[in-house]
Design a protein that fits this description.
By secondary structure, the protein is α/β, with parallel strands linked by helices. It contains 14 helices and 17 strands. Helix content is about 30%, strand content about 20%. Strand 9, helix 4 and strand 10 form a beta-alpha-beta unit. Bound molecules: N-carbamoyl-L-aspartate (NCD) and zinc ion (2 copies).
Amino acid sequence: MKADLVIHNGKIVSPDAVIEASLAIKDGKVLAVGAPEAMPPATETFDASGLHILPGAIDVHVHFRDPGYPHKEDWESGTAAAAFGGVTTVFDMPNTIPATANGEILAAKHAIAKSKAHIDFGLYGLLGDENLATVPELLQGGIIGFKLYMGNTFGKIASPDTGATLELFEVAAQSGKRVSLHAENNDIMERRQKRLMAAGIRDQFAHLAARPAVVAVEAVSRAAILAEWTGARIHVLHISTADELRPLREAKARGVDITGETCPHYLMLSTEDYTRVPGVIAVNPPVRQKHNQEPIWQALLNGSIDMVATDHAPHTPEEKTRNDIWTVDCGFPGVETQMPLMLTEVNAGRMTISDYVRMSSYNPARIWGLYPQKGSLSVGADADIAMVDLGREHTIRDVETQSRSKISPWDGRKVKGLPVHTIVRGRFVMKDRTLVADSKGWGQSVHTIQHMPPPQVRNAEHTMQAITTQCSAGRRE
Ligand code: NCD
Ligand code: ZN
Ligand code: ZN
């Protein structure tokens, strides 16, 4: 059999090993991995001397803003940024306009993404109090999972109260899909923000003061209890504090299907950076005091935190640099800089490159039911590849990035380790740090390949659905 492409002389990285081998690709899939002389003949060969070959990163948390905010980002610019960042699959959040809350809106978003994406994608469906009724059509239309906003953030999607959250978890549990959580307690932070605003306090530290660690800790703990009760699978987005780790670990120890992510900004930035990049660094949850960094690193390395994601949240310079912190849009781009930032830590000896592959690709693929088609470079897997030059030094310049946002706290940061080529299902989408223009529209939704384990519903007899049917049938105990 003739391969489409054979890559020679690279070092292939898996969560367990780094091996020097050749890799053959046919019809978008890995055909063979092994000695160069064992490779089939190929239409094209590629010399990856000096490069590491990684399964492309799977970023489970991006905001590509399309439809709704084309001045911030769209599917074309967002996925171009991803391609430059060695990211081959993204999961996009539902806080677009309109929010991804019913089947029709979901279908429209699938069509937009399909027409513009350079890389593969999954779409989150909103799980909110107002759209309980549309959950079946979201499932039917093809989502990677649900997103539930326990607390308010950009887009101002209403946060369900605890009663609604329980009912939404019951419904999600039946589907077997994972629910990704913006885990911040809305009551606490809204009350504090109102007080601070009334007192005329509007500097950037007020944003941090309105969202102390307890805001996140309380939400993670409560979500874990409701997930344990219902059997819902949950994922804690953007873990920012050391304090969240205890409820996360305890829930895992109890057998709750809970996973977690952190982002480079919680690992590498702290309140010490606030005055350097005022407003720009504002994000929900906030970047915190430095003492949080080491415990979060440890948790990421020992597996308590399962993965690194970016919360790529682009806004424009004008939206990020307003004087009144309460009017600054929270978040900043990250999909393009995550890999170089983390590879810099590999170079610094913080972790091995296999550790990095585990947290950036293997774990996300496993946790969302995409493994081994994604998150792996074994025979039969999708040929989604980031070829990285671990020795290459680079300075991040916001103006040079693919994202439309052009403003982040990473501007001027020196990194060592850069993705130089990105392949999605066998096709180059970024080559020699240049976008492959006709790869626009190559991206596909991954929900079609998703295989989550069967639902593990608990306390089925106590669900809202069960009690209302029982009561209407006249059965009460
Ligand atoms: C995100 C955004 O801009 O969409 N902003 C943020 O500060 N993280 C929303 C979110 O993830 O909470
Ligand atoms: Zn969030
Ligand atoms: Zn986000």
